[in-house]
Every structure is written in structure tokens, then in C-alpha cells.
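Workshop exercise sheet. Pairs work together: one partner reads the sequence aloud, the other fills in the structure field after running the prediction. Swap roles for the next sheet.
Pair: D.N. / O.F.
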Amino acid sequence: AYHGWDGTGNWWDNDAFEFFIGLYDSRGAKHSGNQRGAEPDYKLQFHDQGIVNEYIGPTIWTVDDPEFYMEDFGGVDYVIEASVPLDSIAGDDDVRFHPLRGMRIPIELYFHDNDNGAWEGNLAWSPYNTDLAWQSPTQWSFTWIGDTTDIVTNAIDVADGNILKSYRLEQNYPNPFNPTTRIEYTIPHSGNVTIRVFNMMGQQVDELVNDYQVKGKYNVVWNAEGMPSGVYFYQIHSGVFSKTKKMMLIK
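Structure field:
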């Protein structure tokens, strides 16, 4: 059942949607806190009263604006559709965002659920979200604009008769490298595959693969152009398989 916010009490105790987004090209470590200026982070509330730009303050659209539409289907479920101009998001000290193909931007989707007149739970998109996405972009995931221009995953042909019997994560080549390196891996069973890159502090700095892939041999190129020199670790997860290897970026 749908229980929307009537404008009184806590909006997050009702059926509502939060949208977190960083409007900048994110290539290094995530922001430890919400920032303004050249790399601004935003949090938008979507509910019965419209759309609110929480970190900045003003309401972007009310329910009466033609750019905002909400339907509750008689209290059974709900849908929200809206058009949010980039000019309406930026604060006085924020750089206006101009998207370019290949940019990697922080993002998080967060649903608040109220089925019986009381808050029941939340549903997050990011695997890093521990209900603290409102405090820090370290809890967010990311998405790409246009395509993954700098990261391309290629399937490698396997000759007929060759049977893929085991998971493998190869050493990157070249290593050391500057600024690109290639990572090959093998998955003997189809399934979800993630390959993430971490720095020496254990902080994730990039995600190269996060997709369902059929069994086979693959390679992915990491472009570390925006990263400082140092030791990095790349880690694969697929099914019950997990393996980590070390690589070195020298500029």
C-alpha cells in the first residue's frame, strides 16, 4: 500500500524516494563528506509535496508544476516522473555541470517504504550504503554518462574443444604501467562479475566490471590517468570465487 507524506512529521517515515548524485567526473577516491564548488554533491527528495534540493534548500518543483507528475494508483503503488534542469540544482558556489560522454559520476538511489501507516524499511541501490548515504558519498555507487569510454571489456575467443575448468585472474600487463594496463580473467560459469580497484588504504577507487557475463575469457583495460603513482590492488568476485592481485602505477 502507498502512504505518502502530507507535509507534517518526517517525510522519510513515509513512501518517498531519495536521489543522491555528484555532478562531476569522479576518478579518484570518493568524497568523505558532501562538497560544494567544483565537485558538488546533491540530495533530492521526491515525495507528495514535490522535489526538494535538500543540501541547497529550495524546492525545485511542487506538485502543481508541469515538470512534476505523481500517481498513487488509488493507494496501491506510486510512480514519480520529473524533469530537473541542471540550472535548477546548482547552488551559488557550485560549478554548473556540463556532462560529457565517458564521465563517471557518483549516484545512489534510496527508497523509503511505508505499507501500514508506519515506516517499514529502506531499499538502497549501492552495496556500500549502510543507511548513511545522506552523510557521505563514500556510501554511494556510480554510473557512466554515455558509455564506458575509458573502460572496455572484451571477450577473448576460446578455441573449440578448449574447456574452461576454473576461475582465473591473471597478472595485469604491463606492470608497472603508465597510465593504462590490461587485466585478463576467466570465468567457467556464467554469472555476475565484479572487478574493483583499491588503493593502499583499502579504499575503492574504481570499478572496472559490474555485469552479468557468460562463461569465457575476458580482458579489461584500466585507465589510471587521474590516479597518483603507487601500489593498487584489483579484486575479482564471481560466484564463490574471489581473488586479489597487486599492480603498480609509476608516472
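Discussion prompt: The first strand starts at residue 16 and ends at 22. What would you look at next?
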